[in-house]
Amino acid sequence: MQFLNNWLRPIALAAGEASASLDLPDGQYMLTLADSETSATRWEVVTADVVGGAAVLQRGQDGTDDSSWESGSVIYCTMTAGILQTLFSRIDSLESRVGELEAIAAGRLTIEIVSEVVPFDQTLSGWLDGAAGSLVSAPTELGGVAVSFSATAVQLSDGLIAIMIQGTANADISGLAFTLDAPGFAGVSVTVEQAPGEAAFGIMAAPVAGQLWPDGPVTVTLTPS
Description:
The protein starts with 7 loop residues before the first strand and ends with a strand. The chain has two domains: about 10-80; about 105-225. It is mainly beta. Strand 12 (about 175-180) and strand 13 (about 190-195) form a beta hairpin. It contains one helix and 15 strands; from the N terminus they run ββββββαβββββββββ.
């Protein structure tokens, strides 16, 4: 999308007309039509693809109506609500991505557990590998050692819940400490468990009583201590 400061021209355009001669540099523009330069009462936003002064128009953009514009009407280049909304959406997306990358760089893990898909009851035993949650973000190394994460798991027994995150590491990372934050688990300390000489490791929060399964998704965060 291109912009040009203070560009305004008179125009007459029939409803549905999809072309116009516009003295704009080649490119795509979001332009506004109005029924007067100084006392407008109607507006229409159009997209204009300009090549060699010839513009192909997409009429009635940004929630406006494709209308007829008689003599005395103008077309001009200005900021529109649609452009601003697109910019802010992209900024929000970038900020969210930056936050994820910063969390990964810091070695923080984030897991989302969708409670509705797990029919927990008091008789359930064993681990539900991958059935309850998935990693939203995870680092590629812990303590300077390359790692990869393979599964999350949960267990409910007699009303107590445990969480397990599993993966593999290129070297020994046993004993690395994290602080877990989740409903019912705030401030719980956990460490990496890894058998000598083996690549596989696990990070487990031992069973505690708490409200880990409210309505809707639960976010679990582990931050290096």
